[in-house]
């Protein structure tokens, strides 16, 4: 067996040798000394920050960019989500935006020449009562008007799509119907981060891990530099692409954000034989589940009911999750949880992100992602890159500006949350 990696040819034997020894293994991205000046500094080395850097370089020829990450690339929200992709939102602005992301995700492997393991699965949001069914019908209509494939289906069709689901009428939370969104799916989240990092690096972007931003210098209403634990960088453009730390980083520039941070817990089971080839969500039961290509079941829930920066898992979460999963699929009672974790969700008052310029010239935000951040990575990167390069806010993010909290023109997406919050 032979293959290619970074342009080099590898046999199965040499791959094994490289895997065991690490010798001569090509690095996916390089390390650079931190320069004292960059045209653009992006704070946050997750999918949003890396995608912004990549599209700035690829689409606009802006290459003198530093991405600063206080931990390791993809170690924040990008590595802690449940990797669900969909565009079946409630508002036309949301549907258009997430649909563009989904279409970028579909071709990402080819665009980055990196296997991001996109898997179109179909996405089902169950309705257990009349109120949810009404919201599903509403979403289906908005989706269709935007050209997005979504429809409400009944229990018979749901049972065919998810064989182990309890669709009986005497279930504690009977299933009345579901919003079915065939284009939805899952992807390998680390691969997305690594693919963008590798693509950005190849175009000359400097990726700096273990580099924490400690201050943002502003003079006469404009950004002049960024202070870090490794020294100061002079720059006139800073993009805050952080999750969890969005308010803290924006505070450094004197920009207050209407964001509160909550932990969101998730868990994964031991691998079992493939049986679930859709993404299944129950808002009423506060649970979503998908099965990875390795057979593990990935579960998530709603955010914890208190604001915090904790990324620890709790027994209370695991107990609640197990109970809810078994209400849906009693056959899973013997499956063992392997591990659990939490990510941080920056919730805005209307459940939509905050994107674009701020009152401080040169200081841009791509924040407030709540529980939707990972699926928006590509479109956010594309739109933020255009915004920074052209100095104009692209139409696709025009509704998500910070000024909407002054004008009151909110984009209410709570009704599209996977689970209740
Ligand atoms: O909105 O699809 C979603 C989602 C899944 C996990 C967290 N949010």
Describe the fold and architecture.
The chain has helices at residues 12-21, 47-60, 92-106, 108-112, 130-145, 155-161, 189-202, 246-252, 315-328, 377-390, 404-407; strands at 2-5, 8-11, 40-43, 65-68, 84-85, 119-120, 123-127, 151-153, 177-181, 185-186, 206-208, 213-219, 222-228, 231-234, 238-240, 260-269, 279-282, 287-291, 297-303, 337-347, 354-357, 363-367. It is α+β, with helices and mostly antiparallel strands and 421 residues long. It has two domains: 39-86 and 90-113 and 189-259 and 350-417, FAD/NAD(P)-binding domain (3-Layer(bba) Sandwich); 119-184 and 260-347, D-Amino Acid Oxidase, Chain A, domain 2, CATH 3.30.9.10. The strands form five sheets. Strands 8-9-7-17-18-19-16-20 form an eight-stranded mixed beta sheet, sandwiched between helices. Strands 11-4-3-15-22-21 form a six-stranded mixed beta sheet, sandwiched between helices. Helix 2 (47-60) runs parallel beside helix 7 (189-202). The longest helix is centred in the first third of the chain and has 16 residues, at 130-145. The N and C termini lie far apart (50 Å). The model has no long low-confidence stretch (mean pLDDT 96). Bound molecules: pyrrole-2-carboxylate. Pyrrole-2-carboxylate (PYC) is lined by residues 82, 84, 86, 288, 300, 371-372, 418.
């Amino acid at each position: 067996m032979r293959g290619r990696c970074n342009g080099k040819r590898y046999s199965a034997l040499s791959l094994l040798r490289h895997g065991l020894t690490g010798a001569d293994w090509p690095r996916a991205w390089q390390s650079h000394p931190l320069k004292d000046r960059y045209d653009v500094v992006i704070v946050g080395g997750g999918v949003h920050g890396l995608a912004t850097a990549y599209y700035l370089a690829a689409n606009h020829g802006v290459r003198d960019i530093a991405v600063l990450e206080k931990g390791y690339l993809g170690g924040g929200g990008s590595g802690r989500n449940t990797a669900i992709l969909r565009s079946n939102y409630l508002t036309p602005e949301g549907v258009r935006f997430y649909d563009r992301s989904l279409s970028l995700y579909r071709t990402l492997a080819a665009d980055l020449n990196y296997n991001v393991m996109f898997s179109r699965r179909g996405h089902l949001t169950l309705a257990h009562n009349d109120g949810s069914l009404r919201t599903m019908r509403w979403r289906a209509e908005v989706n269709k008007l935007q050209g997005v494939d979504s429809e409400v289906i009944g229990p018979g069709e749901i049972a065919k799509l998810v064989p182990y689901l309890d669709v009986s009428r005497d279930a504690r939370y009977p299933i009345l119907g579901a919003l079915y969104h065939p284009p939805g799916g899952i992807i390998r989240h680390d691969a997305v981060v690594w693919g963008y990092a590798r693509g950005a690096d190849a175009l000359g972007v400097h990726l700096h891990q273990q580099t924490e931003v400690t201050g943002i210098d502003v003079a006469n209403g404009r950004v002049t530099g960024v202070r870090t634990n490794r020294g100061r960088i002079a720059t006139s453009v800073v993009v805050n692409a952080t999750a969890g730390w969005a308010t803290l980083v924006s505070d450094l520039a004197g920009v207050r954000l209407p964001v509160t941070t909550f932990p969101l817990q998730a868990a994964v089971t031991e691998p079992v034989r493939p049986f679930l080839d859709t993404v299944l969500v129950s808002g009423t039961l506060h649970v979503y589940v998908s099965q990875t290509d390795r057979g593990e079941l990935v579960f998530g829930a709603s955010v914890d009911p208190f604001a915090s920066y904790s990324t620890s898992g709790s027994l209370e979460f695991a107990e609640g999750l197990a109970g809810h999963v078994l209400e849906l699929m009693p056959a899973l009672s013997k499956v063992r949880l392997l591990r659990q974790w939490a990510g941080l969700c920056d919730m805005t008052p209307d459940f939509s992100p905050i994107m674009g310029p701020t009152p401080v010239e040169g200081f841009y935000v791509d924040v407030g992602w709540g529980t939707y951040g990972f699926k928006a990575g590509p479109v956010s990167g594309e739109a933020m890159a255009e915004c920074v390069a052209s100095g104009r806010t692209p139409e696709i993010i025009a509704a998500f500006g910070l000024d909407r909290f002054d004008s009151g023109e909110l984009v209410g997406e709570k009704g599209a949350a996977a689970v209740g919050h």
